[in-house]
Specification:
It is a single chain. The chain has a single domain, classed as Glutaredoxin, CATH 3.40.30. It is globular and about 40 Å long. It is of the alpha/beta class and 158 residues long. The protein starts with 6 loop residues before the first strand and ends with a helix. The chain is built from four helices and seven strands; from the N terminus they run βββαβαβαββα.
């Protein structure tokens, strides 16, 4: 399987095939609106604005698995993110990233790039960088801010 074989739900409940992101550089992030790392939305939006025209996309997957830090409906999460950080990148439905109910996309991502906890996601704002061919090329801990990923994104964009 490749990343392009997965279908996920967007924040409106519609199916989205990741094949629509073929030939794009992707940053896939599990997020939360009430987390100490939530201010990273600002840096994510800055990266998106800077590189989207060159083929860069951010896929935002809210996750309430870590201390209940992504409460609320998809509409509430979207309203918060747009109102507070002006995000314009794609938000998806709230998912689980660990355990028996984890989203199959995250099972795949974790199998491609292990973290300090092996296959487990440690916390919100874990980031996966995917190249234009769909290869997971890097995994970043929540403490790695978006600006620290910029050089790798630029390299992948060519």
């Amino acid at each position: 399987m490749s990343i392009y074989d997965y279908v996920v739900k967007d924040n409106k409940g519609e199916n989205v095939s990741l094949s629509m992101y073929r030939e794009k550089v992707l940053l896939i992030v599990n997020t939360a609106t009430g987390c100490g790392f939530t201010p990273q939305y600002k840096g994510l939006q800055e990266l998106y604005e800077k590189y989207n025209a060159q083929g860069f996309e951010i896929l935002d997957f809210p996750c309430n698995q870590f201390a209940g830090q992504a409460p609320g409906s998809s509409e509430q999460i979207e309203s918060f993110c747009i109102g507070r950080f002006g995000i314009k990148f794609k938000q998806f439905a709230k998912i689980k990233v660990n355990g028996k109910e984890e989203d199959p996309l995250y099972t795949f991502l974790k199998s491609q790039a292990k973290g300090v906890l092996g296959n487990s996601i440690k916390w919100n704002f874990t980031k996966f960088l995917v190249d234009r061919k769909g290869n997971v090329v890097a995994r970043f801990a929540p403490t790695v801010t978006p600006d620290k990923i910029e050089e790798q994104i630029k390299e992948l964009l060519g």
